[in-house]
Design goal:
With 540 residues, the protein is mainly α. The protein has a domain of 183 residues. It contains 18 helices and four strands. Strands 1-2 form a two-stranded antiparallel ribbon. A two-stranded antiparallel sheet has the order 3-4. A hairpin with a 5-residue loop joins strand 1 and strand 2. The chain is globular.
């Protein structure tokens, strides 16, 4: 590998480190402070769930009736109930899993008004929940967590919309398509006719990246030249995947009055991301030695090459985004395994906007609790006591998505209806199925490729997994915030375990990896690890 190919990775890491504190400070100022008509945790949670339920109902009706709605120049038909259910769940939960080709299945109206709207609202939901959790930890002897409607409005109008307009304008200037025209009929260089679907893509792509949604306007997602036309759009899209999740670490530190803790969380996420990128690059190089450089490029976009494909695959699965600029089935087995592990850990290596950080907070609570038990002290986090009930809710939130992806994978691999959708057998086939359920339960949305997921079994099953992965985390974490807000916040003392030291970062990383390894190592052994050994031995 030419070392100059690593320059985009270095530029990406540098820009994330520089931009995140700046944006994080702005978000803290926008959402900080107290206001009138604040809600307790039950009211806040009820408002979020009700709002999401209404959005789900609206979207499923829109998709089933799209043939009667405007902006449908190519005559897209209404969807059947199972597929409409899957899509509606997917976009409301910020998953954006797609078992269909967007450019041929959906109308421009469905793409823009249906999916585009949920790209904003699902992202705002994640950030709003994080802000509520932050208030619960930061306030002392309080009862309220803020006002959900005010938070959602400020997030959309003050953060997501301005950034989306900025990125969309740059994308359009680089050649990304943004039009209401019908599909273009062109003559190729070979003299054949080809249909090129177009539409309002750039505006949706901007928010899909910034809001960690990831759903592609085109089936090929960001590997499509009209969705990712230049190296600049590729770099900016990769930055957009991490920009808001990274910034929220600094927002959290400021709002919780513990800036160093926010920096420690950012450092933890960045270390895990860098390790993932490094291991994936090593795997690709080792695999290239075994099968040849030319074979290694199969399924990858030649405009970007292996390093930028690896950067994207690692980042998009770490950030719960799910967009792709290469077919993940073409990755070396270990690189594909890293992408799976990122999702299996709960999408906390930056993770989704808001959801990644409140998922990380659950691991912090678990780490602090275990540390307190080891030294014989009452566990405290940000000056507030942690009791057994808090830990139980944290464990529920961590285990529920894991159970969904493992049970779903087991049912798929043990039944004929599940196996019938597999393209491959053996270890690679296991990876296809495992990746799909991990992507769903982790609210990532990316696909491994190879699995025909547009069946009633997978549309309904994966839809249920997406609901569990989203709301089985949101509900416990808001309950924890509601319990924390009423407690007195004590000052740190000599006996307080510091949550900003290098030791804390190492303990947190260890807890994350141990939980992930214990839970998922057996299935990873059956899939990508076995496949890697087979590849290195020269056969499958």
């Amino acid at each position: 590998m030419d070392l100059t190919q690593l320059i985009p990775i270095g530029v990406f890491l540098l820009l994330i480190a520089v931009l995140s504190p700046l944006l994080g400070t702005y978000i803290a100022r926008l959402l900080g402070g107290e206001g009138a008509d604040e809600m307790d945790w039950k009211q806040y949670l009820g408002a979020i769930l009700t709002f999401n339920a209404v959005g789900f109902g609206f979207l499923i009706c829109l998709l089933m009736c799209q043939q009667y709605l405007p902006l449908n120049p190519d005559g897209a038909k209404g969807l059947d109930l199972a597929l409409a259910f899957n899509i509606a769940v997917s976009f409301v939960t910020n998953t954006n899993w797609q078992s269909y080709a967007g450019e041929t299945t959906l109308s421009q109206f469905s793409q823009m008004v249906g999916l585009g709207t949920q790209n904003f609202l699902s992202a705002a939901t994640g950030i709003a929940v994080l802000v509520a959790v932050t208030r619960g930890l930061a306030r002392s002897s309080g009862k309220t967590l803020g006002n959900a409607w005010r938070d959602m409005s400020r997030i959309v109008l003050g953060i997501l919309l301005p950034l989306s307009v900025l990125f969309a304008m740059i994308f359009v200037s680089e050649g990304m398509v943004q039009t209401f025209d019908s599909a273009h009929q062109i003559t190729t260089l070979e003299g054949k006719q080809q249909t090129i679907p177009v539409g309002p893509a750039a505006s949706q792509i901007a928010i899909k990246q910034l809001g960690t949604n990831g759903g592609g306007y085109y089936n090929a997602n960001s590997a499509h030249p009209l969705e990712n036309p230049t190296p600049l759009t590729n770099l900016l899209s990769t930055i957009a995947l991490i920009l808001i999740p990274g910034s929220l670490c600094f927002t959290y530190g400021i709002m919780a009055n513990h800036r160093k803790h926010g920096i420690a969380l950012f450092a933890t996420m960045l270390i895990l991301l860098t390790i993932g990128i490094g291991v994936s690059l090593w795997s690709e190089n080792a695999s290239a030695t075994a099968i040849g450089e030319r074979s290694l490029m199969e399924g990858k976009e030649s405009r970007f090459g292996v390093p930028e494909s690896i950067l994207w695959s690692t980042t998009t699965t770490a950030a719960s985004n799910g967009s792709v600029n290469a077919m993940h089935s073409s990755l070396s087995p270990v690189a594909g395994g890293i992408a799976m592990l990122n999702m299996m850990l709960g999408e906390i290596v930056f993770g989704g906007v808001g959801s990644g950080l409140y998922g990380m907070i659950l691991f912090v609570i678990l780490t602090v609790f275990l540390t307190g038990l080891m030294v014989g002290r009452t566990p405290e986090y940000l000056g507030k006591r942690i009791d057994a009930v808090d830990v139980r809710w944290a464990i529920v939130a961590i285990i529920a998505p894991s159970a969904a992806m493992l049970i779903g994978s087991a049912i798929s691999l043990s039944t004929g209806v599940g196996r019938s959708s597999m393209l491959h057998t053996g270890a690679h086939g296991i990876s296809e199925v495992l990746y799909a359920w991990a992507s769903a339960a982790g609210n990532n949305g990316s696909a491994f490729a190879g699995l025909n997921a547009n069946t009633t079994f997978y549309n309904i099953g994966i839809g249920i997994a997406m609901l569990i992965g989203r709301y089985a985390v949101i509900i416990p974490v808001v309950i924890i915030a509601g319990r924390m807000v009423s407690r007195i916040r004590m000052k740190e003392s000599a006996g307080t375990f510091p949550t900003h030291s290098p030791l804390f970062v190492l303990l947190l990383i260890g807890t994350i990896l141990i939980v992930g390894a214990l839970t998922f190592f057996p299935v990873l052994l059956m899939g990508p690890l076995t496949e890697q050994v087979q590849l290195m031995r020269g056969g499958f």
